[in-house]
Amino acid sequence: MVLRKRIFDIIQPDDGTSVLSMVFDRLITVLILMSVVMVFAGTFDLAPITRRWLYVLENVASIVFTVEYALRIATADFLYPESGAVSSRLKYVISPMALVDLAAILPFWLPMVLPDTMLGIRALRLVRLLRIFKLNRYFDAMRTIGEVIAAKKRELLGSLFFLAILMLIASLLMYSAEHDAQPEVFRNAFSGLWWAVATLTTVGYGDIYPVTGPGRLIGAFIAFAGLAAVAVPTGIITSGLTERRGREKGESGKPEGEV
Amino acid sequence: MVLRKRIFDIIQPDDGTSVLSMVFDRLITVLILMSVVMVFAGTFDLAPITRRWLYVLENVASIVFTVEYALRIATADFLYPESGAVSSRLKYVISPMALVDLAAILPFWLPMVLPDTMLGIRALRLVRLLRIFKLNRYFDAMRTIGEVIAAKKRELLGSLFFLAILMLIASLLMYSAEHDAQPEVFRNAFSGLWWAVATLTTVGYGDIYPVTGPGRLIGAFIAFAGLAAVAVPTGIITSGLTERRGREKGESGKPEGEV
Amino acid sequence: MVLRKRIFDIIQPDDGTSVLSMVFDRLITVLILMSVVMVFAGTFDLAPITRRWLYVLENVASIVFTVEYALRIATADFLYPESGAVSSRLKYVISPMALVDLAAILPFWLPMVLPDTMLGIRALRLVRLLRIFKLNRYFDAMRTIGEVIAAKKRELLGSLFFLAILMLIASLLMYSAEHDAQPEVFRNAFSGLWWAVATLTTVGYGDIYPVTGPGRLIGAFIAFAGLAAVAVPTGIITSGLTERRGREKGESGKPEGEV
Amino acid sequence: MVLRKRIFDIIQPDDGTSVLSMVFDRLITVLILMSVVMVFAGTFDLAPITRRWLYVLENVASIVFTVEYALRIATADFLYPESGAVSSRLKYVISPMALVDLAAILPFWLPMVLPDTMLGIRALRLVRLLRIFKLNRYFDAMRTIGEVIAAKKRELLGSLFFLAILMLIASLLMYSAEHDAQPEVFRNAFSGLWWAVATLTTVGYGDIYPVTGPGRLIGAFIAFAGLAAVAVPTGIITSGLTERRGREKGESGKPEGEV
C-alpha cells in the first residue's frame, strides 16, 4: 500500500516537491517528443541501420508508455479516493487523458493481437502522433482559451454557419462565371469551393483564381468578406476574454466590497 | 379549425414539445441539404441514370417545399392573431422568410408558367441554392453578430470607404508604375484594381504582382495598409460586441442595484 | 449680399432643409465619381470618338469644379463669420478641403499656364484622382477611426518600428540563406526585403519564397511573426475604440450619476 | 570631473535642454541608419570604387561607435550614482543596451584580434545589422506592447503550443494524403510542415498545396484553423491592452474616488 502510494505520487504531474516525480515527468516528456520526431523521421528515405534503430527506440517508448498506463490504472484509487476499488479504475479508464494514453500504445499492441491488421502503416503512424496529447497533462495554459471558446460556442458556430453559406453561394457563382473561360481549372462546383476556402481565409495559394471580369468581381466581394471572416471570430473571442477577466475581477472583488 | 391549428404547430420550428413537429423540421432540413448537394452534383459530368435520379429527387423536394409554402400561408392567421384573415396572409407573404420560401420553389414552377423561360439553366441553379437560407428558420445564432454589424454600420462603412479610396489610388499608381514593365499583366487600371483587392485583403494569389522598384515600394505600402484593413473592422466589431454585453449586463443588473 | 448668402447655403453640405442644396451636392458627387471612372477609362485602348467624349466630359467637370472652388472662396466669410473679408478667404484657401478642391482643378489649368508642362500625362492623371477626396465633405464616418488612430499614434508607430527592424533582419538572414540556392530570385538584400513584406503582411504572392532548410526555418519564424503583425495593431485599435466609448459614456453618464 | 559630467549629459538621450546632446543623438542616429543601408548595399554587385567608399564609411562608423561605447563606460558612474566606481561600470557593461553597443563594434575589432577569424563575412554582416537596436535608446514606444505580451505570456504560449500540435498533425495527415499524388512536392513530413506553416499563417505562397480530394479537405480545415490562429492571439493581446488601461485608470482614479 505504501509503495503504491509512492508510485502514485511519482507518476502524478510534479508539484515541485519530489525530485523523483520531476525526473519521471521529464523522462515521459522526452519520450513523447522523441516519438513525434520518429514519426517524422519515418517519412524520409533512411538507411536500413537507421530505420532499425528507430524501430528499437519506438518499441522502448511503447513499452515505457504501457508500463506508465498500467501504473496509472493500478493507482487510480488514490486519484478518486471517494470511489471504490473497481469503480475508481473504470472512472479513470474512460477519462480523456487515459484514452489518450491508451491510443498512444495501441499502434504497438494492436498488430500483435490482430496478426493481419486492418490498419495500414500510415494509419498507425497517425495514431502514434496522438501521443503529443500526452503532453497536455503537463501543460494547462490552453484551458483559458478553451473555456472562452466553449462560452462563445453559439456565436462562433453562427459565424461559421454564415461563412459556410457564403462559401456555398460563392463557389457556385464562381463556377458559373469561370467554367467557360477555364474549364480545366474550374471543373465543377467543388473547384469553386476550394477557391472559396483559399480566398475567404485569405490564404490565396494561387492555384485557382478568376480571370474573367464577372469572376473577378465575385472574387473581390469574397476577398472582402474574408476580412469579415477574420474580424468576426476575433471580435467574439476578444470580447469573451474581456468578459471572463471582468467576471474574475468581479468575483475576487466581492469580499472587498462587502462590509 | 382544429386541424389547421395542429398543422400550424407542426410546421412551426420545434420548441421541444411535439415529436411530429421535430420530425417535420428534420425532414425539411434534410431536403434543404439534399437540394444543395444536388446543385453541386449538377456541375459534374454524371451518367444519364444518375442525372435522372437527381431530377426526380429535385422535383420531390420542390413539391414538398411548395406544400410547405402553401401550408404556411394557410395557417398564417395563427402567426399574426391580431390581424384579419386576409391581412395576416399578406403580412406573411412579404416577410423575409416567406420570400425565401417562394424563391426556393420558383425554379420549379417558373419554367412551367413561362414555357420559353428567359432564365438560363445556370441562373435557375443559383436561385435553387437560395434554399439554404430556409435553414435560417432553425438557426438564430447569427442574430447577435448581425445586430452588432448594424449598430456599427456607420463606422464599418467609413472604413470601407477609406479602403475603396486607397484601392483606387493604389491601382492607378501601380498601373502607372508597372504597365511598361509588364504590359500583358497590368493591361489597364482594372488589372491594378484586381491587384489592389488581392493585396489589401492579404489574399495574394500571385497571378499579378509588381516587379519594378517603384511598383514594389507601392506594393509594400499597400500590403501594410492591408494590416489596417484587417485591424480596423476587427476593432469596430470587437468594441461593438463588448459594448453590447456591457449594456445587457447593465440592464439585467438594474433590478439588483435598485433598493 | 442676400444672393451670396443663398449661394453659401446651397454649396454647403446639405443638412436636409434645402432641396437646391441637395441637388447641388448630388451633382458634385456624380461629377466626382464620373471623373474617377474617366481616369480609369483613360487607361484602356479606346476608339477616338470615345476618347473625345471623355475629353469633353473631363473639361465640363473641371469647369464645374472651378466654379465651385470660386464660389466657395467668394462665400468663405459666411464660414468664418468672426474673421475679416480677406483673412476669412485666406483661412479657407489653406484649409485641407480647399487644398483638395484646388488640386482637383490644377490638372486642367496647369497645362494652360505652363505650355510645356513638366508634369507628364500620367502624373496629371494621378492628380485628377485626388478628386475622390472631395467626397470627404459629404462623408464624415471616418473621423472616429482617424481620431482613435491619432490617439494611439505612439503605440502604432512603436509596433511599425518593431516590424521594420524585424523586416530588416529577416531580409538579410533570408538573403544569406537563399542567395546560393536561388541566385536569380534572391539577388540582393532588397529581394529579401520584398519577401519579408509579402510574408509579414501574410500576402504571400508566391513570386519569391525560400527553398532551403534554413531558409524555410527563417520563413516559418517570420510567417508566425506576421500573426503578431496583425494581432498587435488590431489590439491597439480595438482598445482605443473601447476606451473612447468608455470616455463618451463617462461624460454623458455624469449628469445621471450626480445628485 | 566637470568635463566627464558634461560628456555624460551630452551622450545621454536628449531631453530637450541641450543643443549639443541633440546634435550627438542625431549624429549617432544618422550613423546607425547609414550602417544599415551599407549592410544592404554590400549585397549588391558594386564597382570597386563604391565598395572602397563603403569600406571607409563603415570604418568611420565603427570608430565613432567605439568612442561612444568607451565614453558611456567612462561616465557610467553618473548613471548609477549609488554604485561605486568599479561596480557602476560593471553594472553598465552587462546592461542590454551596452551589450547591443558592444555587438555593434565587434565586427570591426574581432578580425583584428583573431587574424584568421572563424566568423564568415556573412555572419559579420548580420552582426553589424544588430546596430539597428542602438536606436532603441531613442525610442521607447514599444515598451507598452512588450509589457502586455509579457503579462499574457502564459496564454500566448498556450495558443502557440496548440498551433504547434495542430501543425504537426496537419503536416503528417497532408503528407499521407498527398505523397502518392505529388511525390516531388510532398517529399516527406517536413514538406507537410512547410505547407502547414504557410496555410495556418494564411501566407499561402502557392509553392505547395493539396490537389487530391482528401488533401483539400484537410487543407480547408487547416485554413479555417488559420483564422483561429489569427483570432486567438489578437484577442489575448487586445484584452491585455484593455486591462492595462483599466488598471492605469483605476490607479489614477483612486485619489478622485476617495473622500
Output mean pLDDT of chain A.
82
Weakly predicted, low-confidence segments of chain A? 253-259
Largest interface, and how many residues on either side?
A: A-B, 47 and 43 residues
- State the major sheet of chain A: none
Order of helix and strand elements from N to C terminus of chain A: HHHHHHHHHHH
Number of helices of chain A: 11
Strand content of chain A: under 5%
Count of DSSP strands of chain A: 0
Distance from N terminus to C terminus of chain A (CA atoms, Å) equals 49 Å
What's the quaternary structure here?
Answer: homotetramer
Q: What is the 3D shape of chain A?
A: extended
Helix content of chain A: over 70%
Class from helix and strand fractions of chain A: mainly alpha
Radius of gyration of chain A: 26 Å
Description:
The structure is a homotetramer of 259-residue chains. Chain A is mostly helical and 259 residues long. Helix content of chain A is 75%, strand content 0%. Chain A has 11 helices and no strands. Chain A has helices at residues 2-11, 19-41, 48-74, 76-79, 85-93, 96-113, 121-129, 142-151, 153-178, 189-200, 213-257. In chain A, helix 9 (153-178) runs antiparallel to helix 11 (213-257). Mean pLDDT of chain A is 82; it is low at 253-259. The interface between A and B is large, with 47 and 43 residues.
